[in-house]
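Many introductory courses stop at the sequence. We go one step further.
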Amino acid sequence: MGIVVSLDEGRERKPSLEGLAALVADDLKAVNALIVRRMQSPVAMIPQLAGHIVAAGGKRIRPMLTLASARMCGYQGERHLALAACVEFIHTATLLHDDVVDESDLRRGEASANALWGNKASVLVGDFLFSRAFELMVEDGSLEVLAILSRASAVIAEGEVLQLVTANDTATGEPAYLEVIKAKTAHLFAAACRIGAVVSERARIEAEALDAFGMNLGIAFQLVDDTLDYSAKQAVLGKTVGDDFRDGKITLPTILAFRRGDEGERAFWRRVLEDQDQKPGDLERAIEILNRHGALADTVERARHYGAIARDALGIFPEGAEKAALLDLIDFCIERAY
């Protein structure tokens, strides 16, 4: 297994998105302009609501993966721009739907679209963005691209339903949890990377390597996200602490703590997650239990494991600026926990 260097081992600089963002800056500017154009509609609420979430400060990691993967594969055309926009539309649509399902009032520290416009409008504008994504896929003209991105869209929806099935169920194990995060998060990361090789007409082995890179990066990314939900670092990132806890979501930190705890602690988890009977101080107690059992630290270690697999997947590609930036992205996604 590859090695992911820890911040505690003399790392001279903190990993960041800066290198990747700088490499794809011109392309990303074109993608953002395309996103703005394609979310226009004579129905005024659509661009208003869509523009609210698009402008909410997301990192654009998924479209940057498409742009950087295509660059690393030597692509010289412009198809990757529309496909990167397509990836972002799919992601944004899922955010709108997620916030409705989760009854979230905040998104990246700001009022969520459903809090401002209501659930019905958010769901329908999410559908509009999915439709725009499929228009871009069809305009690209590649059946292979269409197959990759349409499959990713279907898997995301399956993941959402699977999460509903496992929500509030403390009997949920790690395999079922991993199935959820692969579907909800990692499949779109994988698709975003794979289409970079497809538009470049590279060999299948390279497309599969980028798919594996994206899949394992996506798993690591979500593992850290689920750790951050119980971390004060959330406030720094513009998110609220304990959203998953309040929603009764079963994530790896709670799975590990439930396994490792005594019967009194398991009764606590059943009360707050299954019964949704939460009292003042329960979140603080949950965080204390998670830390005492090493559940948060071990979840980050799982993320390092998947990050190392992602790192190995890029081994077949020659050294270069794009590869270095993608490798740095792995560290960035994991070190967000610190």
